[in-house]
Design goal:
The relative contact order is 0.10. The termini are far apart. By secondary structure, this protein is α/β, with parallel strands linked by helices. The chain has two domains: about 180 residues, Vaccinia Virus protein VP39 (Rossmann fold), CATH 3.40.50.150; about 80 residues. The protein has a seven-stranded mixed β-sheet with strand order 3-2-1-4-5-7-6.
Length: about 325
């Protein structure tokens, strides 16, 4: 794992975000090109690589990307910055394509590509969802993000729902740690460079699909039961639980976050191969049901908030 030298200067810390509809376009940009060069070098891009960058800003990282990769697509939502980038790279049209668009609305390529970005921290999960769970995810992804977010995505030190979902498709890790003094202003959170590499072979068995695996993981992590043992009581028989607890070393006290991502994948495969259909029905569409319930909660919150504001005006 790479550790930066103490004299490295600013890494950009993106603007604050309250929701997708109210993304602050303010941001802190790289002050030292040496830092941009250092982190881009870690990606080892080659002339054949197509690299997508979110929010080129003033082009500090972009400058290094166009020297390393064959082609860069820079997606900049801020129209003012976009226009400045157009002028800046007027003579680099063969190396960079600039797009004035919200990345969350951008249609990803159907050909092989890689990803490098300093993303708005407030929509880290939304961006990762978009690039990870589409029909053609990037071969490699490099994202500057908060350390806490990277820990959730890697499942280290505690396994999470998202780390389990990423595991069969990607190998994920934090490859660069920034010092708070690398930021201007000084960062009040720990920042890392997160790498996610698409596996050459998907770890899911050929007779399984990601939708079923996603439902299984959602069922487990959104169960009201705290321990993994009590969660599994509803979908495995007592004999099966005995076999599994012995094989994977969990007990009635083991928390869901204490089971590693590779073990969850093996538990899912066991579930598919060894449980009757009525047990599978308990898990089926778990992700869809969770999303519907979450949407309902959001709508109720908005309704209650609007009602309180109306009463206040009265």
């Amino acid at each position: 794992m790479y550790n930066p030298r103490q004299n490295f200067k600013s890494i950009p810390l993106r603007g604050s975000i309250s929701s997708r509809g109210s993304i602050s376009l303010s941001q802190n940009f790289l002050a030292n090109p040496k830092v941009a060069r250092e982190i881009v070098d870690l990606a080892h891009f080659i002339d054949e690589d197509l690299v997508i960058e979110i929010g080129p800003g003033t082009g500090r990282i972009t400058n290094e990307l166009i020297q390393s990769a064959g082609k860069v697509i820079g997606i900049e939502k801020n129209t003012s910055l976009y226009q400045k980038l157009i002028l800046k790279y007027e003579d680099k049209k063969d190396k960079i394509e600039l797009v004035n668009e919200d990345f969350l609305d951008y249609k990803l390529p159907k050909i092989d590509y890689k990803f490098f970005a300093n993303i708005p921290f407030g929509i880290t999960t939304e961006i990762l969802d978009k690039i990870s769970f589409n029909s053609n995810p990037p071969i490699e992804t490099y994202l500057i993000m908060q350390k806490e977010a990277a820990m959730r995505f890697t499942g280290n030190p505690k396994t999470t729902q998202i780390s389990c979902l990423l595991y069969p498709i990607f190998a994920a890790s934090s490859i660069y740690f920034f010092d708070p003094a690398d930021f201007n202003p000084i960062a009040n959170v720990d920042i890392v460079l997160f790498k996610m590499q698409k596996r050459e072979v998907n770890l899911l068995k050929k007779n399984t699909n990601f939708g079923d695996y996603k439902d299984f993981i959602y069922y487990v992590f959104n169960s009201n039961a705290i321990s993994v043992f009590n969660t599994f009581k509803t979908i495995f028989s007592n004999i099966q639980l005995g076999i599994l607890s012995t094989r994977y070393g969990f007990s009635k006290q083991t928390l869901k976050t204490e089971i590693t991502t590779d073990v969850y994948l093996e538990l899912f495969i066991f579930f598919i191969d060894n449980t009757p259909f009525h047990k599978r029905d308990l898990v089926r569409r778990a992700a869809e049901k969770y999303a519907a319930n979450a949407s309902k909660i959001v709508k109720e919150h908005r309704t209650n908030t609007h009602s309180r504001k109306s009463n206040f005006r009265m």
